[in-house]
Amino acid sequence: TTEKMAGFFPIDGQSLGEYKGWTLVMPAVSVGNVGQIAVDLVLATAKLPKIGFWLSPSVIPVVCNDPLATKTKKVKGSISLAVEFFRCVDRKLVIMQRRSPLTRGGDKRFSKNITAWAEKSGFSSIIVASSSQAYLNDQGSQNKFWCTYTNPSPKTVAVIKNLKLLYKSLSPARTLDAKSIPDSGVSAVELLRNGSELTRALLENAKEAKIEALAVLAQVTEGDNLVDGQELALLLSNLLKALGEKGVKAVIGVGKKFKIPFAYEHVYGPPPDRQIYT
What we know:
One of its GO terms (biological process) is proteasome assembly. It comes from Amorphochlora amoebiformis. One of its GO terms (cellular component) is nucleus. By secondary structure, the protein is of the alpha/beta class. 28% of the residues lie in helices and 19% in strands. The protein has 6 helices and 9 strands. Helix 1 (34-46) packs across helix 6, helix 2 packs parallel to helix 5 (197-209) and helix 3 packs across helix 6 (226-243). The N and C termini lie far apart (55 Å).
């Protein structure tokens, strides 16, 4: 497979150009894979239909059984690939999930191709679920989440400000070009360089393509990041609800608990003995 062949391959007859005004949601492989966990939780709970996959030499190929099954008896034997796309027509959302690493140096090619496809398909905005290194938040801030964006619409800016009222642990958002993040003293680009280089590449490519792009990040450390993923999934779900049209059903219902895929039972192993802390 050559890079020229990289692109979206539909599995239900869908073609390019059908997503004008839609939002593309995707994770960025970053610290603790929190973005991927959050997207998995949303997909497993919302049960959105799969519409296609992405083929690219920049992505290490992988084939697996249904990774979203919540119980062993519900595994249907369906094949899943490295990069897949799911759709929510009511909310005008396409959600991408990536389950394997990129090849060395493939992050720039991958982000450029994804952004070019999003532009060609008519997507109006891109939302990236990601994470950054917690140790960079060294200015005394207690905020766990932060946002950075480019080409933001007035509605997006207003929504982020309102979310700040709900989430005390969410720092005020700043554009990608801002010199520092409030309460942190570290620039957005520096935070993204340390733990989420792909997020920065996606935002920069979106900026060039004049597509609105927003990254929501959790500041974490490597380890058992399932709880971090749940928190980011909740923030992401509320963000999508706030950005959507009024009266349209939310992707995840209010008060509904996230369903955890069965596969996650084997990711982190048993927790440490609590007696070591006493």
